Amino acid sequence: MKSKTILFRDPVVERVCDKFVKRSDVGYAKYGRTLHDERTGKHKDLAGYLNDVQEELMDAILYIQAAREELKDKPKPEAFRPPHPSDAENILGVNSPLPGEELEYGAPV
């Protein structure tokens, strides 16, 4: 096993690299060899790799569709609309009654 120190300027890139290492560990635990061992040991040919890529991309398309359906099923939050300046008095409570005061019917707000 090889060790390497990498300085990351971008934490997103660092997290992706961490996932690659973890994914490699899962593959090694499952198959007992690295991707390099598989290639150099001729365990799989180019057609086998292309088939794997195709299957993974097909899975990715299915995940994208499922995620889109999940978004479609959830109610969309209302978009934020900044208040119009004419609403300032109401928002700031300039003419609002004080706590405990009743607002008279027809009185200006």
List the helices and strands and how they pair.
Elements: H1 11-31, H2 35-40, H3 46-73, H4 88-92
Provide a brief overview of the structure.
This protein is an all-alpha fold and 109 residues long. Helix content is 55%, strand content 0%.
Walk me through this protein's architecture:
Helix content is 55%, strand content 0%. With 109 residues, the protein is an all-alpha fold. The termini are far apart.
Regions with little confidence, pLDDT below 50 for 5+ residues: none
Largest sheet: none
Which H/E pattern describes the elements?
Answer: HHHH
Strand fraction equals under 5%
Q: Write down the Rg.
A: 30 Å
On the 0 to 100 scale, the average pLDDT is: 87
Number of strands: 0
Helix segment count? 4
Q: Roughly how many Å apart are the termini?
A: 75 Å
General form: elongated
Class by alpha and beta content = mainly alpha
Helix content: 55-70%
